[in-house]
Amino acid sequence: MADCFGRYLRVTTFGESHGPAVGAVVEGLPAGLEVSLDEIRRLMDRRRPGASDLVSSRNEPDRVEVLSGVESGRTIGSPVALLIRNLDARPEEYRRTRKLFRPGHADFTWFEKFGRMPPSGGGRLSGRETAARVAAGALAMSFMASLGMKVRGYTLSVGPVSCRKVVPEFAEQHPLRCADPDVASEMTDVVRKASSSGDSVGGRIEVVAEGVPAGLGEPVFGKLDALLAGAMVSVGGVKGVEIGEGFRLCRLKGSEANDQMSREGFLSNRCGGTLGGISTGRPIVVRLAVKPTPSISNRQRTTGPDGEDADLEIHGRHDPCLCPRVVAVAEAMAALVIADAAIAQRTRNMDGYYYFFGPRARNGPPGV
Ligand SMILES: Cc1cc2nc3c(=O)[nH]c(=O)nc-3n(C[C@H](O)[C@H](O)[C@H](O)COP(=O)(O)O)c2cc1C
Q1: Fewer C-beta within 10 Å: the chain N or C terminus?
Q2: How many whole angstroms from 295 Cα to the centroid of ligand 1?
Q3: Residue 126: CB within 6 Å of ligand 1?
Q4: pLDDT single digits (tens) 68-100
Q5: Are 139 and 149 in contact (CB under 8 A)?
Q6: What is the pLDDT of residue 120?
Q7: CA 349–ligand 1 middle distance (angstroms)
Q8: Which of 60, 61, 126, 119 lies closest to 92, judged by CA?
Q9: Quick check: 326 and 204 in contact, CB under 8 A?
Q10: Does residue 122 have its Cβ closer than 6 Å to ligand 1?
Q11: Cis geometry, peptide bond prior to residue 158 (ω within 30 degrees of 0)
Q12: 354, pLDDT greater than 70
């Protein structure tokens, strides 16, 4: 079941980086949900390689073919199959690296698990796999939008350069998805310098879900924050997750960390919109630590299945910084988790229906 995700909204992804296609099958969406191909295309373009000189030059059009489950622009209740053909695959570029373990990539662990080297480019452990997640996430976002919820993400830092403020509209236009116009060119320089010196750079991104009503999340193993963290770390290159103030909370006192309440609702949102794994009604805030791209052209020491020492320089089409592309993937994963939790809440008890269809939907829970 390692390629399936979700409990009520179930997504199965398939396909390898340099095979004929990648794709997803999405089950559990209600019938009648609007599916806009233009919106799917817009979201796919946000993740797409070849869109700027700050990401891999692999030039995939990433057009999504909807093979089933949709008629006249709306879901019909059966599984939605989404296909994205790989039109710029070049398996021959990996001929040399396929004999060696790429440091930081998953070749060694794949070899230990399956007893053979992974297919070209990492197969399922390539960033290419995440195209399917974004296509599936587009459907989850459409479902969220129908309930008044939305997700957005942006880059908070790259290498030593951190945003001092967040202007989401600016991030949307910037190739690195940098959230702060004042540091954007400095951030771009860091990526260009790393790239031109044969290296790569990491960073932090933030994803915020707004309009999520209080009450979503299934204690104890289906806690919303637990599912979000798992979903985010399942994205290649993501090595850390914070919910709300996250690691900063451990430096605070209880009196500083708690989100106090009044009749208006919560007075702050340091918990990042979840308490006890259940949404509070405030924005859900998730931050991700993204490591530097493993594939770099600088010489590195490694070995291969034969155990001999070797030097490796990786040339080819790689992202010098994963952040801008991970933003789109993290948004999709957040949407899949939250949409799943929303469907779970509707089946959990009669109250669930009131959130979406009853008076509480109109008035909103406290603090929204
Ligand atoms: C959208 C996206 C694009 C990626 N592009 C590259 C790339 O060009 N080169 C590379 O070495 N790794 C790339 N990665 C990262 C690897 O997939 C990842 O580091 C590898 O699978 C090892 O997993 P881990 O870093 O989570 O342990 C990308 C990841 C994502 C999500």
Answers
A1: N
A2: 8
A3: yes
A4: 999 999 999 999 999 999 987 666 665 666 799
A5: no
A6: 78
A7: 40
A8: 119
A9: no
A10: yes
A11: no
A12: no
The alpha carbon of 255 is separated from its chain's Cα centroid by a whole number of angstroms, namely 33
Q: What is the topology classification, in CATH, of domain 4-363?
A: Chorismate synthase, AroC fold (3.60.150)
Give the pLDDT score at 122. Answer: 82
Q: Identify the CA nearest to 119 among candidates 142, 95, 140.
A: 95
Ligand 1 center to 128 CA (angstroms):
9
Best of 126, 130, 233, 323 for a ligand 1 pocket test (most atoms within 8 Å of beta carbon): 126
Q: Mean pLDDT score of the chain, rounded to an integer?
A: 91
**Domain regions of the chain by residue span:** 4-363
Are 204 and 288 within 8 A, CB to CB? yes
Percent of the chain with pLDDT over 70: 90
